[in-house]
Design brief:
5 helices; single chain; four-stranded mixed beta sheet; Macrophage Migration Inhibitory Factor; alpha/beta
């Protein structure tokens, strides 16, 4: 159940390029959360909210080239260091690809924040949705979802040796 807040400046991309980018971002969100983007149930839970800043300023002046900001949110346990790094790189590349050379290919113009929402605080459908609830909805197997969630959360919460 990934959610993405996509801050795409007005007019930064042609309409068709933006439509293709949003579709690609949906696939990337699901892939890097560990879901199959071809699964229609999983896909229906991947939402992208597009925000339209009228202007973005850099060092107090209007930016010469578009600046993008993406906030990817998933339930706790769905990202690890590898998945988090991969989603940041993949979103950055997808945005720069969507520009198709209209601006210098500068990854510093794309910022991606990969956030996990703490277990027990994701709300949907008027209730709290735990990781196991969401996974169970997608795969249709509550027992397998419980095992998956327990493993992912245990791995996520395991202390890292200094």
């Amino acid at each position: 159940m990934p959610m993405l807040d996509a801050y795409i400046p007005e007019g930064a991309l042609p309409a068709e390029a933006e439509r293709q980018l949003i579709s690609r971002l949906t696939d990337l969100l699901l892939e890097h959360e560990g879901a199959d983007p071809r699964n229609p149930v999983a896909r229906s839970l991947a939402w992208v909210f597009v925000h339209r800043p009228a202007a973005v300023y850099v060092a107090g002046a209007t930016a010469a080239a578009p600046r993008y900001r993406f906030i990817a949110s998933v339930p706790e346990g769905q990202y690890d260091d590898e998945r988090r790094a991969a989603i940041v790189a993949a979103v950055t590349d997808a945005v720069l690809d969507a520009e198709d050379g209209t601006h210098p290919r500068d990854p510093q113009r794309v910022w991606v924040f990969a956030n996990e929402i703490p277990e027990g605080t994701w709300g949907g459908g008027g209730q709290i949705m735990r990781l196991a609830d969401i996974v169970g909805h997608v795969i249709g197997d509550a027992d397998a979802a419980e095992r998956y969630a327990a493993r992912r959360l245990a791995d996520r919460r395991r202390p890292v040796a200094a």
